[in-house]
Amino acid sequence: MDRDVRVVALCGSLRDQSKTRTALAAALASAREAGARTDLLDLREYDLPAYDPDEPEPEDAAALCAAVSDADAVLIGTPNYHGSYSGPLKNALDYCGRDEFGGTTVGLLEVAGGEFPTAPLEHLRSVCRTLNAWTLPIEVAIPSSSSTVEDGAIVDETVAERVAELGDAAAKYAGVEQFPELAEDRRNAFAGAVDD
């Protein structure tokens, strides 16, 4: 990679042994292999009270917004909670806005205990569209997480490859709106893919 790219991952799980965090770490490793600088934004490390626009912005919220704003690409990962994304992630996203996400490349990842994890990705894609972010056509839904992710690693080879592909794409297409030549590459690379 011949340009300076920063990819961050926003983890929507607060669980200590989070499979979502494991998957995001793997995606970030792939982004680093592609030449990007990476950071994990672990919501356990941010003191974010329930978003209240009438209250002063907490210091940690300002730090989170700055980290997202400074990124060329953001990977958003969530566990599947009742068919949608997690409350902590929703709260974190409520603190951010178009100033932080507008024009930013975003990759989406979901981890579910069941077999058909889809709705949270649709919900997050809609949120990202509202924030004027550009979501990658590739997204990752990790099913049956109790057997797919074990002991801090993705043990399903097909899932691991897809997660690596997401991280690579985040690095490759980071800042795509700021790099017109990449926009052309994107159209060629994802020709025929569904991109909304």
UniProtKB/TrEMBL annotation:
GO molecular function terms listed in the Swiss-Prot or TrEMBL record: FMN binding; oxidoreductase activity
Pfam families per the UniProt record, alphabetical: FMN_red
InterPro entries referenced in this protein's UniProt entry, alphabetically: Flavoprotein-like_sf, FMN_Rdtase-like_dom, NAD(P)H-dep_reductase
Cofactor(s) this protein cannot do without: [4Fe-4S] cluster
Cellular component GO terms, alphabetical: cytosol
Residue stretches making up the NADPH-dependent FMN reductase-like domain: 6-144
Similarity comment: family membership: Belongs to the SsuE family. Isf subfamily.
PANTHER family: CHROMATE REDUCTASE, NAD(P)H-DEPENDENT FMN REDUCTASE LOT6
Protein name in the entry: NAD(P)H-dependent FMN reductase
Species of origin: Natronoarchaeum philippinense
